[in-house]
Amino acid sequence: MKRRITKEEAQAYKNRWDIVNKAEQQELRETTAIQKLYQLSTLMGWVKDFGWDEALRSEETETRERWIKLKRLCHV
Hints:
By secondary structure, the chain is mostly helical. It has one domain. Helices cover 82% and strands 0% of the residues. The chain has three helices and no strands. It is extended, with a radius of gyration of 22 Å.
């Protein structure tokens, strides 16, 4: 059986993650638009490489159908 963590250990764990989150937020603030576009382009390239395009295409169809239904229900 695993032992439970103490209140102090839990607080230390939370403090470490607070530091990580602050560092990540700072890193994101410092990322230029060009870098973000490059990252997006890289991710989009991986879609085909990893074979995700078919799954995303099916989700896209479902999403479009939901929007059509919502528009119809809202008389838009």
